[in-house]
Amino acid sequence: MIHVIAVVCFLMIIYAMIPYILSAWFSIGVKRKGKKEQGMALTFDDGPDPLYTPELLDLLKQQNIKATFFVVGERAAQYPELVARMHREGHLVGIHNYKHHCNWLMSPWKNERALEQAARIVEKIIGEKPEYYRPPWGMIHLFDFFLHRQFQMVLWSRMFRDWRSKGGSEKISRGLLKKAEGGDVILLHDCGVTWGANEDAPHYTIEGLRTALPEMKRRGIRFVRIDEMFSSRPAKQVRVQKEKNLIHGA
Ligand SMILES: [Zn+2]
Q: Who contacts 247 (Cβ-Cβ below 8 Å, separation ≥6)?
């Protein structure tokens, strides 16, 4: 019995722990931070949410800020009009898998099918194949490095535990104003129904942003989408191309 446990532990270390450390600590196989001069990327996971996503989109529109949303496939299918609005208003839509499940607990092939399913749903809504993928909880497994090469995996460089209500909006605004800097990919959430989150947590995220964003802009921080931050093409070229796509209804 002890041998079986030892083998399972060894396989889990190879399959899950080492890839997790390589990606989260050393950025191997993933993007997680840009250069200081590339601006700052706000990213929102777990949505869309019928209550909080529209409120967040209103705020981003008012502040003229473009962000990146990593949507859950089954929620995108449930609220397609919110995904369409993200795209219409110039935000980038990436995927966060079909369901918010831990990748470590499903086979690589099941994971691959779930990703393709999520990508198909998003493509059907916005008319573009999503290129960016963020695994739930950043849990990457060994096969993530070899399968689904069509997606660029993105983690984050800074988070403020915004999935919990504790600390309120001040936790978010203080974190953004004191810790965030150019090159950061900021992890935030526009939905609080996933395991471990508080349902009303996005309320505090939005209120924290409402306080911090005007001051961050005043300090000269430029907000960019993930594709602007990580594309090998100049940011302006990416934006012009995306705007052309929007005009032509792509
Ligand atoms: Zn998530």
A: none
Cα–Cα distance for residue pair 134/128, rounded to 1 Å: 17
The answer, yes or no, to whether the previous bond of 202 is cis (omega within 30 of 0) is no
What are 18-40's pLDDT values in tens digits?
777 777 777 778 899 999 999 99
Q: Residue 118 carries which side chain, given as an amino acid letter?
A: A
- Structurally, how many domains does the chain consist of? 1
List the end-to-end C-alpha distance of the chain, in Å, as a whole number. 57
Going from the Cα of 52 to the center of ligand 1, the distance in angstroms, rounded, reads 15
Domain that holds residue 233: 2-247
Catalytic site positions:
45, 189
Distance 3 CA to ligand 1 centre (A): 35
| CATH code assigned at 71 | 3.20.20.370
Q: What pTM value is reported for the model?
A: 0.87
